[in-house]
Amino acid sequence: ADALRWIAEREGGQEAVAAFARARIAAQARAYRKAIEAVGPDERAGALAKALSADGYAATARSAPLPHKGEQLCQHHCPVAHVAEQFPQLCEAETEIFAELLGTHVQRLATIAHGDGVCTTFIPQISTDASASTAGRNPA
Q1: Does the bond joining 139 to the residue before it have cis omega, within 30 degrees of 0?
Q2: Residue 32 to residue 98: CA distance in whole angstroms
Q3: Domain ranges of the chain
């Protein structure tokens, strides 16, 4: 936390902290990307959970409760929670990289750093039915 506070105070404020957070998760994401690219679209959340667990996050993926269509990625441990309490940019950068890796918008529902018991991210089901996703749209 002291290092991030120093970055914030002397090296460019909160945007410098955000840049550090993005660089930190980008380095970790290389391994996550390999795991995700090795499986099909329906297995990506599980592959990400397994890769996160290898980094100490004790992550799981399961179907989201109805009526939602998608999965919930749950991180039952966060090695940086004590720092992320003061610097939420760490959680924000992680959420951004999850969306990039999974190829869809994701929604952070809860974080350990915010006082929740588990970090929870909703991953909507990606529709593979192009006609349904473009119905009623005028491409012109």
Answers
A1: no
A2: 9
A3: 2-125
Identity at 14, one-letter amino acid code: Q
Which 8-state DSSP code applies to residue 41?
G
Q: What is the DSSP string of 46-70?
A: HHHHHHHHHTT--EEEEEPPTT--E
pLDDT digits (tens, 9 = 90+) for 81-131: 988 998 888 899 999 999 999 999 999 999 999 999 999 999 998 765 544
d(CA 29, CA 113): 20
pLDDT tens sequence across 54-75: 999 999 999 988 878 899 999 9
Give me the torsion for CA of 121, 29, 4, 106, rounded to 10°: -20
What is the spatial distance between Cα 16 and Cα 82, in angstroms, rounded to a whole number? 19
